[in-house]
Amino acid sequence: VDPTHFSIQPNLSLNQAFPIKTEEIDDRIKFRLTNEALWDNFHKHTTEMIVTKAGRKMFPKFEFTIDGLDPKGWYGIYLTMVPKDQNRYKFQAGEWSAVGQADVRPPAMPVIHENGFIVGNVWMSNPICYDRIKLTNLPQSDQTNKYLISLASMHKYQPTISVYLMNQSPHYHYKLVATWAPKTAEFIAVTAYQNQNVTKLKINNNPFAKGKKGFREGSIRKRSHSSSPD
Amino acid sequence: VDPTHFSIQPNLSLNQAFPIKTEEIDDRIKFRLTNEALWDNFHKHTTEMIVTKAGRKMFPKFEFTIDGLDPKGWYGIYLTMVPKDQNRYKFQAGEWSAVGQADVRPPAMPVIHENGFIVGNVWMSNPICYDRIKLTNLPQSDQTNKYLISLASMHKYQPTISVYLMNQSPHYHYKLVATWAPKTAEFIAVTAYQNQNVTKLKINNNPFAKGKKGFREGSIRKRSHSSSPD
DNA sequence: ATCTTTCCCACCTAGGTGTGAACC
DNA sequence: ATGGTTCACACCTAGGTGGGAAAG
């Protein structure tokens, strides 16, 4: 019966705890996407992520390692889908173009990693994966208390990590010590895939996407795609 | 970016935190099995739980509600499979009998609920379910850091809940404020079901157990069971 | 007309069941 | 022989995919 470390659970309505927040960036904290090669492949074609009302998981997964934390400090790691720019996008003639102003969107909501505030040692010992989150096009106001992130379709987003360190003195508070926004993980939210190259990458790399044994080697269904990628 | 509440994660090897422990039972804290009728049905026939090397989930689930906590206090809830007595059991002539001395067993390990230390308000607002745990007959020493609970086959256990309250003054420590051991949830660990009545209750009530549409209404398999229960 | 969204679906992965034969 | 344990397996539930038609 020994507490080992603390975590703060996401998406719950209580609001006790530590309202005091400061900032003090620690340059020793480093990040690395664990599946960087895969993200790169997608990024070359402009990554698309499906959004649905019920919420769709990200693929590739947003998974990374972190290094340079104080092994005994308590850290919480937040993910925010930051609007990349003020454009609306359109896929035409085989590529994405900015077309006009972005929709008005409510501010991006940070989502704390399900581990919550735990010691640096544990954060650094395993890849960190946002596995429960789902992307949705439902407005935030309609959401149930789940791991849904509201995005606007045909808009570009930058997954961004913020790391907070919990301090205990002179009083309990927490401070921002690192941010990270890997460009290769940016994506455009869509309700249906636009670029067939992206579709093929998803099918070829996501075990849940059919195709591997399905229609790839001749099935009943007729297909109409063409093209090149992996 | 607001912490809402704290939790302590289970089964991790770190050991920082709050070694000081006290006891002060609070009689206002009450518990209730959410699926009491089902537990009762099993208990009438003497509940059996399968243990395997890989770990087997409990059925019925150990799920309950709690009441009478301080809504703003931080509580952690532990589950311990306490050896019920010093007997070894055997199923013979259609019923369980004590036969000789229990094996020597290492002390029962409490498992903290995955929510860890969170405020009473949250504990009281939803049923509490130990959903991740699995029962195994592997010795503790062989285990990976998962939610495995080591039990001895043919021995009787009493699922027991312990509730700890985290105090902040005069220093950080936690104290035992309630225990609960519902007799209807006791069970005998087995590597294969002994009582056919128990098997039938499992099949009829666990959605993962085949039988509902399977061999119940005539299939190829020949069966050799007989009997009565639900 | 054109573009975007929604919905249902077949088809997967992942993993929780008891079975019965083999093993010890 | 006996009785407990293990293992591979068929058969489920649960849920993550893109497809395609239909709707907006």
TrEMBL record, chains A, B:
Portion of the parent chain present: 29 to 258 of 349
Domain T-box: 33-214
GO cellular component: chromatin; nucleus
Keyword Transcription regulation carried by entry: yes
Species this chain originates from: Acrobeloides nanus
Chief site of localization: nucleus
Residues covered by region (Disordered): 209-230
Protein known as: T-box domain-containing protein
Keywords: DNA-binding, Nucleus, Transcription, Transcription regulation
GO molecular function: DNA-binding transcription factor activity, RNA polymerase II-specific; RNA polymerase II cis-regulatory region sequence-specific DNA binding
Biological processes per GO annotation: cell fate specification; positive regulation of DNA-templated transcription
Localization per record: Nucleus
Protein origin, superkingdom: Eukaryota
Entry keyword Transcription regulation: yes
